[in-house]
TrEMBL record:
SUPFAM superfamilies (UniProt xref): MetI-like (SSF161098)
PROSITE patterns according to UniProt: ABC_TM1
Family: Belongs to the binding-protein-dependent transport system permease family.
Domain ABC transmembrane type-1: 81-271
Pfam families found in the cross-reference section: BPD_transp_1
Originating organism: Streptomyces anatolicus
Protein name, as recorded: ABC transporter permease subunit
Record's keyword terms, sorted: Cell membrane, Membrane, Transmembrane, Transmembrane helix, Transport
Annotated localization: Cell membrane
Membrane topology per record: Multi-pass membrane protein
Transmembrane segments: 21-42, 83-108, 120-138, 144-163, 194-215, 254-274
Length: 288
């Protein structure tokens, strides 16, 4: 009887997990389709001001309502999500490349090089990401690329640790020892044996980093240190809607907030399914 209950419970868990993965995949596909298709097809200026239509609630003409100067919020959210995804994906890729290079260098070199590199990683990890990001962005004019640089330079640390641990694990494998004993060069061992084993973990770290990068960009833009206030991003949309929220107009804050939360949770859900597939015995969270 207990075995039947356990199997039924396991089946429910698998069914729930599969439903979550499918839902996340649908949301991510819809997001990608929206940011790629909506701007070219919709012949509207997302910066167009219509004071006669300001702060209108959601309707058929404006499904998300309008903001305090009459701009369509749905179109503004799509453009903002487009910018946030650009920042998130580019910053995640750059941070993954940096972290992979640093982690592989530390593990391959060993000795004092490994100790110095990892101590530097510990030092940078002790500083909060947002505080360090604010310091980096403050040195440049507001724009997309300073935010990308800020996010990339504050999010490679965990990837370096993950890659270092994976390289150290792979170096202890018998086939790597056999390749070294057979006279293979370090470059050949790295390219043929170590790199293929590291790439899945590095790719997973990059995907998991995208939601963090979007949240980071939104926080910087909300503080007025990210993108210019006239440029649509999810952080600037939430920041500019604070006055409307105090006046009782909820839609200028709700919909940009949902555009931040829902897609990032969907990406994280797909990344979690990928993590379980490549390493089903270890389901601990990757702290990025």
């Amino acid at each position: 009887m207990a075995d039947i209950v356990w199997r039924a419970h396991g089946g429910v868990r698998r069914s729930t997990r599969a439903w979550r993965v499918r839902t996340s995949a649908v949301i991510v596909a819809a997001v990608v389709l929206a940011v790629l298709v909506v701007p070219p097809l919709v012949n509207l200026d997302e910066q167009a001001v219509d004071l006669a239509a300001k702060l209108r609630p959601p309707s058929l003409a404006h499904p998300f309502g309008t903001d305090d100067v009459g701009r369509d919020l749905l179109l503004r959210c799509v453009y903002g999500l487009r910018v946030s995804l650009l920042v998130g994906v580019v910053a995640a890729v750059v941070a993954t490349v940096i972290g992979t290079a640093v982690g592989a260098l530390a593990a391959a070199s060993g000795g004092w090089v490994d100790r110095i590199v990892m101590r530097l990683v510990d030092v940078f990890s002790s500083v909060p990401h947002l505080l360090l990001g604010i310091f980096i962005v403050a040195m440049f004019r507001p724009g997309v690329w300073p935010v990308v640089v800020s996010v990339a330079l504050t999010h490679w640390l965990s990837t370096a640790r993950i890659v270092r641990a994976e390289v150290l694990s792979l170096r202890a494998r018998p086939y790597v020892d056999a390749a070294i004993s057979g006279g293979a060069s370090r470059l050949r061992v790295a390219v043929r044996h170590l790199l293929p084993g590291v790439l899945p973990q590095a790719g997973l770290a990059a995907v998991l980093m995208v939601p963090h990068a979007i949240w980071h960009e939104s926080a910087l833009s909300f503080l007025g240190l990210g993108l210019p206030t006239h440029q649509a991003s999810l952080g600037t949309l939430v920041q500019s809607a604070r006055g409307s929220l105090l006046a009782g107009d909820w839609w200028p804050t709700l919909f940009p907030g949902l555009f931040i939360i829902v897609p990032t949770l969907a990406i994280a859900g797909l990344a979690g399914a990928w993590r379980e597939r490549i390493n089903p015995r270890r389901r601990s969270e990757l702290m990025l």
